[in-house]
Design goal:
The protein is α/β, with parallel strands linked by helices and 278 residues long. It is built from six helices and six strands. Helix 4 crosses helix 5. The longest helix is centred in the first third of the chain and has 43 residues. The protein is extended, with a radius of gyration of 29 Å.
Length: 278
Amino acid sequence: MPYKRHFVEKANNTKNIIISLKAYATLLQLKAFAKDARAVFFEKNEICIIIDDKEFGSGTAIFGPLFGINRAHDAFREVRNLRIGFSIDNKDTDRRLRSRLQRLVAELTRHAEEKDGLSLLKRLRVSVESSEFYCYCYAYPHVYIMGPYKFVMEEIVGLTPTLDIPDIGVTGVPRWFAKCLKMCLQGEGGSLEKHDSPMVTTVKRSSMGRKRKITEQNWEQPLYSLVDFAEKNGIQVLDDDYDNVGHQGAEDEEEEEEEEEEEEEEEEEEEEEEEEAM
């Protein structure tokens, strides 16, 4: 019967529509749940990004698996707690570290500049660490090895004035340098001027054995006049004054030894007094 077939097809279509609506409602619920779970994940966890000199086939992989997928850079806007670590192996890593930090700063500020996409970053920690580079010379003070490499962190000042980060910490560098970076990120201390570094001409040999002269800035030259910034704000510039565990200077070690000797002498005097009293 044609009429019967018509009503059966109509009922089946209605049933399919109901199933599709239920599936759509479930999809909306899952999407809302995923959004809440995403917010909880970024709220409760610290995201750590290690910037090193390793070569990557894709430029999206330099910030790790969380931000390595296409279109996943939008996740930068959701980050609340961020830790940036610099892994330094040798002096040739300077330019690559600077360029990758520039890219990271651009990604973090890109969302803050959008009208409805303000960054949620509330806590920032920046540190410089070295790996195999100074393992063989562990007996030397930290300043002799890491002194020139602190300038790779200068590009981080590009976060201001776009981002307003209330909690900032900088470690692995001298105290004066950490204070200057922190003040710049918080928009304090006045303007930071560019540093006019002298150009150096070097001779490099290509893979074919040909020599060529290249004029460029020395790798350890700063980009900004942070020394002038420190003097302007009354910060004493001491490159051997560190505020990180495991890299205390010789003066601190001598003070600790003197305190231990004084405590031992006091204990011996107390024991002698007790023996005389008995």
